[in-house]
Design brief:
about 425 residues; four-stranded mixed β-sheet; 24 strands; about 25% strand; binds ligand EPZ
Amino acid sequence: MDSIIVRGGAELNGQIPIAGAKNACLALMPATLLSEEPLTLTNAPRLSDIRTMTTLLQSLGAEVSALAGGKVLAASSHGLTSSRADYEIVRKMRASNLVLGPLLAREGQAVVSLPGGCAIGARPMDIHIDALERLGAVIDLRDGYLHASAPAGLRGARVPLRFASVGATENVLMAATLAKGTTIIENAAREPEIVDLAQCLRKMGAQIEGEGTATITVQGVDRLHGATHAVVTDRIELGTYMLAPAFTGGEIECLGGRLDLVGAFVEKLEAAGLEIEETERGLKVRRAAGRPRAVNVVTEPFPGFPTDLQAQMMAMLCTAEGTSVLEERIFENRFMHAPELMRMGARIDLSGGTARVTGVERLRGAPVMATDLRASVSLILAGLGAEGETVVSRVYHLDRGYEQVEQKLSAVGARIERVAA
Ligand code: EPZ
């Protein structure tokens, strides 16, 4: 298992290219199951999770090839051979559950392993199941697998979601494209990844309105055709690198960055004293003189502050002037990075879903352990500003969602390297 060593204190200056969004691509790839014609995705991120989704689609009989060094994914599922998503793949990546809706719509049946819990929470699928049942599916849980069928096909319906779940919105949106009649998804998730999926489905011939709002209307069609679609910029990778100058000083331009993807996050960065400027190529961030200011943060569904940037923000607030209060409202167990930051000298009081962070002058490097994807990158950011050396172990978590972290950061002046165990 690789580790990453960060020697803190180097100012960062330069440009960092932002890749296509992992969480958009993981929903776009299963969309290929909705048509017999090829779907080509450009600006695809090169990540282990994308390779896992490729393996899953191939296990169903789809053809998926990575072209142009992995930045283009050519997928075709003209001849599916299975509608079973096996536990061995699903346990590696819960986003595998995004094949449930498309398989049901295309094949009238699907057997999908229940992912089980993960480091950040229990993450049940009750909202997915309720939504698909409203479209006429019959879903049973047997031996750890969801057995879903809709022999007569799916039919449009009103689908009120009890919570604006990203995954459930994506599953029911894809299923509704081939359902008979009209589906109205209420309290739908509004994340940019949902908008990207809807735009791609429309290119495939789907009839969709309202993506990006809380109400999405889908008029079912008989079949979808092929398309080519560019994956939207990764707003979480973007936010992660926008934070880097807060730890080190300097100025970073995030190429491909868009303000509309990170609105609520930028508000907090500016409140903390960072200067953000839109450029022709993206977003430029610099730290004004001195330490960041303390700010309070509450994580919410989009357009609120993203939970996937909470760990990175906490790491920054560890050296802010004053005390910040962070409230994690999306996942019940997403403070695993806090004890590791405390090993670096941070002052954090945890109680339930709330963390009180009292800023210290500077963190000190230490050996720390990554527990999940976003926690791992928060420790790397903390190491960039810390005194001495930080060694982050279990970085396989990182490779799931960040391509070439050490290359991108060392290109702007960071002292960072990956070491094999
Ligand atoms: C997506 O997960 C993202 N993953 C997550 O990013 C992200 O944190 C999350 O949305 C919230 O923004 C992908 O897109 C692949 P949810 P998802 O369904 O779809 C509860 C990362 O770091 N819930 O919106 O699984 C659930 O337990 C990852 O890239 C139910 O109770 O998130 C959670 O508390 C981590 N029942 C909340 O809703 C359900 O049926 C939000 O989950 C579904 C969800």
